[in-house]
Design goal:
The complex is a heterodimer of chains A (about 90) and B (about 550). Chain A is of the alpha+beta class and about 90 residues long. Chain A is built from three helices and four strands, in the order βαββαβα. In chain B, the strands form two sheets. Chain B has an eight-stranded mixed β-sheet. An eight-stranded parallel beta barrel of chain B has the order 9-10-11-12-13-14-15-16, surrounded by five helices. The chains are: A alpha+beta (about 90), B alpha/beta (about 550).
Chain lengths: ~90, ~550
């Protein structure tokens, strides 16, 4: 299992379009990716509605967990995605 | 003749017949016709695949016609259909004995309720998206196909209780003159799409069925719809429309040109905005910056006070979009005629002279410092300035400077990046005019708020129609105050702008240039008309310089 944290800088937070991009990116990986935020909010990165209803706002720090498959490659891909998109 | 008002989604002016549209409701479920769950699942899957194909086609068309932002809306709709949790909800309803169409509407309703209950205006508005996509699948299952309202006939103004994004996208743009709805929030995808399409639109209007087919005037900039206008009003509106069409074409050719007079005097023309939603207009109209960002918008409709993060996000969005051009953020100007439910204020005998604007901020410092920190953080992303409303004394400015110092220290100790922001004051009281020399030494810029300045100088309530005969918008007292302020600013190297209604008055542009005003800040739609009048002026080389003490 691998983990990293990221603080959202997009002004509207994890909104519909970005959640959609995250789902697409996560579906390409062979690992299971989970996004969690403070207050027990959590969702699989391939689940659009669940990600949106987490209501992650700008400035919040999320924890991204990667499990199974090529964890190292998946972590690198996710870190790049968060940095460039969110 | 009947006139109704609504909230502005997109400014614009249109004349034409109203067509009242009501979405056909799904037929009532027929319990006898429900097939075994395995067959209903198969029906759902086939309909869902067809809906996905429709959305892909819609996405391609919208991308070609309106660009990526519009297309992304329908890309998300398609992904919602494939979402595991959404599918689980549909299958659970089918297994519970629902027909496929009823199941998809049930699932859509469940997710819409979750979104609607969220404590976030953006996410609340997503309820309409999941309902939109669910209705699409249900319509296919019921054999209704996608309905495009009014696909035949001439141009029309559409009136609807509520319009889903996909319904708006399916309308024939070449015949859609304008849009009036009741329930769409200004952050809905329908509203975003209407702005992208540039369709004049209002929401919050109670639609009446008997409007259908009646000739109407939509003056969206004024937030007004007039049904069955009398002949004089109608012919005036038609004239206005023709004039605007010719003008609009001429004005667009001025984009990218400088605001310079025939004899070479230049003045900056910036935009007044109420929030990030106005950005497309600011960019379309080629503003040289945001001269007045009314930060109240974040507070006026909020159920609770906006947090530092929320404010930072909104300010940053504007600062970034301006890409190096200045954004002037006016600090909270509540009180008097602007009341926010999230900040209840005591009733006052005389609210125009009461605890408002900077007075409120210096009384509620917690709230003020939250805003100042959010602005300082946004300043790390581009050229930002802070504008203080309703200043009457020097100590108020010094107090704010001390608070800014505290805010920087707090951000520093939190390790939060922040930027430098210029400081300016609104000159909107006679007191501020008379101490302009002293104020000019304290701040980097002045912004003359001519609406309040007129009200306080003439002792006339602008909103009382009975006082209209007494109110001269170009009263010499006000113009002299502006000149005096401009001279005081000039003598101390303090930039001077005008941001009230007078700034957009073309009859005064020449006077402002002669006074040495550096910047006019006006509603986005007024920028290009102002540019045209500036480019037609010739001051004969004369422009007042700030030498000697300022004179009335």
């Amino acid at each position: 299992m691998k983990q990293f944290t990221y603080t959202i800088t997009d002004p509207i937070g994890l909104h519909a379009r970005l959640a959609g991009l995250l789902v697409k990116a996560a579906k390409e990986l062979d690992s299971a990716v989970t996004v969690s935020a403070p207050g027990g909010r959590s969702a699989g990165a391939t689940r659009l509605m669940a990600l949106m209803t987490m209501c992650v706002k700008s400035g919040e720090t999320v924890t991204v967990t990667i499990e199974g498959g090529d964890e190292e490659a998946s972590q690198a891909a996710m870190e790049r995605f968060f940095r460039e998109t969110l | 003749m009947e006139t109704v008002t609504g909230k502005i989604i997109q400014e614009g002016f249109a004349v034409g017949p109203l067509r009242v549209w009501r979405r056909r409701e799904a037929p009532p479920p027929d319990a006898a016709a429900v097939l075994p769950p395995a067959q209903e699942r198969a029906r759902f899957e086939a309909a869902s695949a067809q809906a996905g194909a429709q959305l892909e086609a819609l996405c391609r068309r919208v991308r070609a016609e309106l660009g990526e932002d519009g297309a992304a809306i329908f890309e998300i709709h398609r992904m919602m259909l494939e979402d595991e949790d959404y599918l689980d909800a549909v299958y659970a309803a089918i297994d519970g004995g629902c027909a496929a169409a009823a199941a998809v509407l049930t699932a859509g309703g469940q997710f819409a309720a979750v979104f609607a209950a969220m404590d976030d205006a953006y996410m609340k508005a997503r309820a309409a998206d999941v309902e939109d996509v669910s209705r699409r699948v249900a319509a296919i299952l019921d054999g209704r196909g996608g309905e495009a309202p009014f696909s035949a006939g001439g141009p029309f103004l559409l009136a609807a209780e509520e319009l889903a994004p996909s319904e708006l996208a399916q309308l024939d743009r070449s015949r859609l003159l304008g849009l009036v709805t009741r329930w769409d929030s200004v952050t809905s995808h329908t509203a975003i799409l209407a702005r992208t399409m540039g369709v004049p639109a209002l929401t919050g209007v109670a639609i009446r069925g008997n409007w259908d087919g009646r000739r109407s005037i939509l003056d969206a900039a004024a937030g007004r719809l007039t049904i069955d206008p009398d002949p004089a009003l109608l012919s005036a509106a038609e004239q206005t429309l023709r004039r605007r069409q010719t003008e609009a074409a001429q004005l667009l050719r001025l984009r990218g040109k400088p605001n310079v007079t025939l004899d070479g005097h230049e003045i900056e023309v910036c935009a007044n905005i109420g929030g990030p939603g106005d950005l497309p207009l600011v960019l379309q109209n080629d503003a040289q910056g945001v001269g007045l960002f009314r930060s109240e918008f974040l507070f006026l409709e909020a159920e609770r006070l906006p947090t530092e993060e929320e404010q930072f996000a909104a300010y940053r969005q504007v600062v970034e979009a301006m890409a190096g051009k200045r954004t002037v953020i006016r600090t909270l100007d509540l009180g008097a005629d602007k009341q926010a439910p999230c900040l209840p204020l005591e009733k006052e005998e005389n609210p125009a002279l009461g605890l408002r604007a900077i007075r409120l901020c210096l009384t509620r410092r917690d709230l003020f410092k939250t805003q100042l920190r959010a602005i300082l953080r946004a300043a790390a992303f581009g050229k930002t300035a802070i504008l203080l409303p309703m200043i009457v004394s020097l100590w108020e400015v010094r107090e704010v400077k001390a608070l800014l110092e505290e805010c920087r220290a707090e951000l520093g100790s939190r390790g939060e990046p922040f930027g430098e922001a210029e400081l300016g004051v609104m000159i909107e009281t006679p007191a501020a005019v008379l101490i302009a020399e002293e104020l000019a030494r304290e701040v980097e810029f002045f912004s003359l708020g001519t609406n309040d300045l007129t009200q306080y100088a003439l002792a006339i309530d602008r909103r009382n129609p009975a006082l209209e005969p007494f109110c001269d918008a170009r009263h010499p007292a006000v113009l002299r105050m502006i000149r005096y302020t401009a001279e005081a600013g000039r003598r101390h190297g303090c930039r001077v702008g005008v941001c009230g209604q007078l700034a957009a008055d073309p009859a005064l542009t020449e006077d402002f240039l002669r006074m040495g005003i550096d910047e006019l800040s006006v509603p986005p739609a007024a920028i290009l008309p102002l540019r045209r009048s500036i480019r037609g002026l010739d001051l004969g080389g004369e422009r007042r310089q700030g030498e000697g003490p300022p004179q009335f």
